[in-house]
User: What shape does this take?
Amino acid sequence: MTSTPQPLLSVQDLCKFFPIFSKGFFQRKAGVVKAVNEVSFDLFPGETLGLVGESGCGKTTTGRAILRAIDPTSGKVLFHDQGQTHELSGLPTPELKPLRTRMQMIFQDPFSSLNPRMTVGDIVGEPLKIHRLAKGTELRDRVAAMLERVGLRPEHAIRYPHAFSGGQRQRIGIARALVMNPALIVADEAVSALDVSVQAQVINLLEDLQEEFHLTYIFIAHDLSVVKHICDHIAVMYAGRIVELAPTDELFSAPKHPYTRALLSCVPHPDPDIKMNFDLHGEVADPANLPSGCSFHPRCSECIERCSQDVPDLTTRDERLLACHLIDPDQ
Amino acid sequence: MNKNVLEVDDLRTSFFTDEGELQAVRGVTFHLERGRVLGLVGESGCGKSVTSYSVMRLIQEPGRIVGGQILLHTGDGRTLDTATLNEKSEELYEVRGGLVSMIFQEPMTALSPVHSIGNQICEAILLHQDVTQADAERLAVDMLGKVGIPGPEERLSQYPHELSGGMRQRVVIAMALVCKPELLIADEPTTALDVTIQAQVLRLIKELQAELGTSVLFITHDLGVIAQMADDVAVMYLGRIVEQGSVHAVLKAPLHPYTQALLRSLPGLSGTRERLASIEGTVPNLREIPPGCPFHPRCEAFKEGLCDTGAAPELEELAADHRVACVRAKEVNGL
Assistant: This one.
């Protein structure tokens, strides 16, 4: 071990803008959707970072841009793996391909993320075939072992996805991601579609696998209670930007950004005596037409004049990153 | 006036498929007091939506209500059994959208994409109230204002795709409440919405419920939403109610092993990184409903010969305003 641990992933000023074209024959560029805007964070091996926020805040796009499932507009994604550092955002496809085995994704919908015409064995074995890592008996054995590890039976390999329940399908998706022996997993709403009792099983499985294979997770979710349970650090996103990034316990015990506070207070608690806050007005900012200054200012109850003029920088305060004018970095 | 607005007694709804009869609701009994909110909670496939669709008589072929009563007590002293009303009868038309109305989960599919919002709300008014088109439009504008839609006059001519998800759900709520129904069925009304918008919509339902005195049957899988919204709760599992009582009794001191396990398996309540107490196995298929207590194959308190034989246990009053369908509940909870 070195004295200063190196992050597995270091994201710097990552941006992903989508052009909007005007209607009609000459599709002129009419504007731009700033889906991900100057997102930066470090992620250390074996840790779990939660990306939370409401729909359209850019959490999924961030996950995809990191893995190069889509090409980022600008910014750097440094992936430190097996003694080497790779800059993913600019890497040409042939050099990217071998790295794909080291980073995998688990998707939200276990119904649409599995090909209904392929057997479970083919689905889980396909990545190994594509990367020519195993064939024949070895391929079958590795698939069988992986299926067993995620709580399915080896004989399930010959069946088709429709024969499985939602929770079991999600296990198949996890097996497909893990069969490559990756270092980084991006789990995009991996448990959102599941019922509570099954969700708990899958969360436990993800945690066991993380320990066993020393995995690093980026856990994208809108459900704050799931994120609170599974993550070491949480980044709260709003309108394409990270507004607060803090260790989980600190974020939940003392949220600093007004948006984080509002978001946490809106979660309905299953104890009827703990009343939720119904007071946040307005809707999520439209990323194609962002308000000036801080994107949250039209909904913020503590907004000051400066908030509508300058975009607040994401600055470090103790162990926390925060983008808000109200909390002065000098104090 | 009867103090209950709705009394469901031994409701059974089945779907007759090629694979045989699937019993989605298997003897559900509950009542809803006027002006109160009853939460129906459970995981997918537990029959909560089928129960609510049965009340509205929206069960489609190959489904059918095969037994039981659904008594609707109207404010003017009549009692209608919606389970047996003729499909084409005046009364059933009055029930649907008039006496009872419904908010659905997906506001986009609940609204017609080719009719303007004004058109859709006025249709409901004109069907159930004896008013002119101009009056109907005025009522629609009033209602849109009440559900917090800015500029309601201009909105009348807009189409659902021009509104955000939260706004669409407000339109659906306006449509449901414009005829002042006695019973509002809200089937997962906020599941498709973000938390901050969910909070706004829940608040709106609460305020309107208090203002109009509507009784609400609130269906959700989210125990948090139930805790914040309901006065009483019924927990369903495999087509039966397993626990029923006031929201405080059921959520703070659950007596049925299923409810207890469900609450324990919620993440984020205990400390972080602790192992979640999950429930073993999955909800069984409706074709393979276990004998005896339907929950017994997954239950920690399972006792052979007691839980897995005979009929499913009936609800039994174990504490004030708290009924549980479990033969071992007394023993397990030390009552």
Remarks:
- Residues 119-180 of chain A form one domain.
- Chain A has a mean pLDDT of 90.
- Residues 196-213 of chain A form the longest helix (18 residues).
